Amino acid sequence: MKHVTIIVLLLCSSSLYAQLTKGTVVIGGSLGYNSQHDRSYDPNGYPYSGENTSITISPKAGFFISNKSVVGLALSYTSQTSDAVYTGIGSLGRTERDLFSVIPYFRSYKSLGEMAAFFLQAEASIGFGTLKLSGRPYDLSSYSVAVRPGFNLFLSRKWALEATFGSLAYESTKQSPEDSKSSERSDKFGFNFNMATLSLGAQFFIAR
Predict the structure, then answer these.
(1) What is the CATH number of domain 2-206?
(2) CA-CA distances (angstroms) from residue 204 to 14, 20, 25, 36?
(3) What is this structure's pTM?
(4) Model confidence over 7-28: pLDDT tens digits?
């Protein structure tokens, strides 16, 4: 029993210290996936099923400019598909969206003991990509600013699991048909706390 206790104490003493200090480099990434299948009725009473799927991959790197404050840069690729299928009729059109984004960010940490830390991240994003509406191609561009909360769980001095969920954001998106000079712009602002905002990842801390 004594040997077990000693081993546990050694593991704790060697792993339960977060590297949230000036000069630390953090490298990592996150993955977000969401799939929804809804059954409902349109205003005319016709039954339909809606299918929506999205996946986001985002590598990132940051540098601690002070204890618990990070500036960094992330890259992001998001792929989304949605389809509305009416009973007895079939699909009325499939939407496909692919977007690449560059995201500079600032992150402030608050330690929650030696194993965990909460953070708030402020970020700006510039993106470009393509959109297909029922097979018709569009050029897509967007920019946004957002604040999102997150949580790190430290598995060791260098490794941490990360989760973010929800955001307060403003986003502007422009879509232009490839065969036309016209364009459409949409703007949205507000809280977003659906499952599509959940992302999970890992971080590797390199202390100086």
Answers:
(1) 2.40.160.20
(2) 16, 12, 8, 32
(3) 0.79
(4) 343 344 444 456 789 999 999 9
